[in-house]
Design a protein that fits this description.
single chain, mainly alpha, 3 domains, 17 helices
């Protein structure tokens, strides 16, 4: 038997927590429900007996920000409570007690206060745009107006879970290349700043007899060793200037245009954006948000400005009765298969379901594309590091081998 720590609410919405023994997670849920509690959070291990319980590491709250993971957990918990028949006011009150992030606790307390005072849930959420996006607020508003708040919360939770899974897949795929770059770069820095300067003492009296590759390497080593602070300043200024350029409309548009034209990476970015577009629009339409309003919200969650600019003809086409698939095809931004699937959805009256299938299809293609790119990046990075380190070693060996040709 395993001990599970649980956090739950009773039928009155009061927050409770404790421990329970069960053979597995699902049995623990059933036993908690038999106690007439609605489980919110269940974790393996006893509650309140961990040495680290209550201890917060530096930066654990992300400098007072609410992470997407915390927002996802909040949405799932709220969906569970409201779906169990507990009033929204009581559910929010329970979640205030459950929140560990102080910023989240403050935001939830303010929302609960506004809801208790008669404000709608969507209006209360809209007072905190730094935590809840337009997509989040509009889906809640549509759920409230249609009397299907629980369904909207459930769709929101699934939407956020899929978006988080996509981010995690990309991050996990980049871990190995990042480690490889860090280790290789560190090796190059050590060679240039520690090893080569020791060799330079032996070669400093050789004059013009040194081979050209050795002269180049000794010069680079001297620059890095003596002016490393200047290089850091120049690199920082370059990065800051590039970031500032990307913040301008023209700079971001030109960069996004270039990214879409890159081999492999351009197709990957396009697939990611198509998946985001399809999943978001499908979720909004299923929640009862009007399609024109939904497109306006979709524009705010897309990151590539070239694809965002393609949304304007879509809205104009819908207003003139052209539908969605026609303007999408004319934009030339969306792949032919995605356009065809959306056309089928419009024709059959199942646009929201077909958009969800488009998202699922391109999620799989994104995962496959990431694997293909990583499989190419790894050998290329190894080859690049080998060439750099090989050049350093050969330049030193050339000087050593040429020492017999130098007249003293």
């Amino acid at each position: 038997m395993t001990v599970f720590a649980y956090k739950a609410t009773d039928k009155k919405g009061q927050f409770v927590e404790g421990d329970i023994e069960a053979s597995d997670y699902h049995v623990a849920v059933q036993q908690i429900q038999k106690l007439n509690y609605f489980p919110i959070q269940i974790t393996e291990g006893k509650s309140g007996k961990s040495f680290f319980k209550g201890i917060k590491l530096p930066g654990a709250d992300l400098l007072g920000q609410i992470s997407q993971k915390e927002l996802l957990n909040l949405t799932q918990q709220l969906s569970t409570l409201v779906g169990a028949g507990i009033t929204l006011d009581s559910s929010l009150s329970s979640l205030v007690k459950l929140a560990e992030n102080q910023k989240l606790k403050e935001v939830l307390a303010d929302i609960q206060k506004r809801v208790h005072g008669g404000s709608s849930f969507a209006e209360a959420l809209s007072e905190h745009p730094q935590a809840f996006s337009k997509l989040y607020v509009n889906m809640i508003r549509a759920g409230e107006e249609g009397g299907v708040l629980t369904a909207s919360l459930d769709r929101l939770a699934k939407f956020m879970e899929k978006a988080e899974d996509l981010k995690n897949n990309i991050r996990s795929a980049l871990v190995y290349p990042a480690i490889l770059a860090l280790v290789g770069g560190s090796a190059v820095v050590v060679l240039i700043t520690v090893v080569i300067p020791r060799f330079s003492v032996l070669f400093e009296d050789m004059g013009t007899a040194l081979p050209l590759p050795t002269k180049i390497m000794l010069g680079m080593s001297a620059i890095v060793s003596n002016y490393w602070w200047l290089l850091i300043i120049l690199l920082t200024m370059t990065v800051a200037g590039f970031i500032s350029y990307l913040k301008t409309d023209s700079g971001k548009y030109r960069w996004d245009t270039l990214v879409l034209k890159l081999p492999l990476f351009g197709a990957l970015v396009q697939k990611i954006e198509v998946s985001r577009f399809s999943l978001t629009l499908s979720t909004l339409l299923k929640s009862g948000v009007p399609v024109l309003h939904a497109l306006g919200i979709v524009k705010t969650i897309l990151s590539n400005s070239v694809i965002v600019s393609a949304m304007n003809p879509l809205q104009a086409g819908l207003k003139s009765g052209k539908g969605l698939s026609g303007p999408l095809e004319q934009s030339g931004i969306f792949p032919a298969m995605a356009v065809h699937m959306i056309t089928v959805g419009e024709t059959s009256g199942t646009l929201d379901d077909m958009l969800a299938k488009v998202s699922e299809t391109y999620d799989k293609e994104v995962e496959l594309s990431i694997k293909q790119i990583i499989s190419l990046i790894e050998p290329l990075m190894i080859l690049l590091m080998a060439l750099i380190i090989g050049f350093i070693v050969i330049s030193m060996l050339m000087a050593i081998f040429s020492i017999n040709d130098i007249s003293f």
